[in-house]
């Protein structure tokens, strides 16, 4: 396994609006050791909502 995949794992961001919509992204473990929370667009809810990292 390469060092790059250890430092930047692939994470799934799930919508908090309850629509089940997800984004897949990478995060830097060194800068964000905690769970990631981003505000992104949910096309099912048709608005911007918080997306939280689910493992």
From TrEMBL:
<protein>
    <recommendedName>
        <fullName>Large ribosomal subunit protein bL33</fullName>
    </recommendedName>
</protein>
<dbReference type="InterPro" id="IPR018264">
    <property type="entry name" value="Ribosomal_bL33_CS"/>
</dbReference>
<keyword id="KW-0687">Ribonucleoprotein</keyword>
<dbReference type="InterPro" id="IPR038584">
    <property type="entry name" value="Ribosomal_bL33_sf"/>
</dbReference>
<dbReference type="GO" id="GO:0006412">
    <property type="term" value="P:translation"/>
</dbReference>
<dbReference type="Pfam" id="PF00471">
    <property type="entry name" value="Ribosomal_L33"/>
</dbReference>
<dbReference type="GO" id="GO:0022625">
    <property type="term" value="C:cytosolic large ribosomal subunit"/>
</dbReference>
<dbReference type="GO" id="GO:0003735">
    <property type="term" value="F:structural constituent of ribosome"/>
</dbReference>
<dbReference type="InterPro" id="IPR001705">
    <property type="entry name" value="Ribosomal_bL33"/>
</dbReference>
<comment type="similarity">
    <text>Belongs to the bacterial ribosomal protein bL33 family.</text>
</comment>
<dbReference type="InterPro" id="IPR011332">
    <property type="entry name" value="Ribosomal_zn-bd"/>
</dbReference>
<keyword id="KW-0689">Ribosomal protein</keyword>
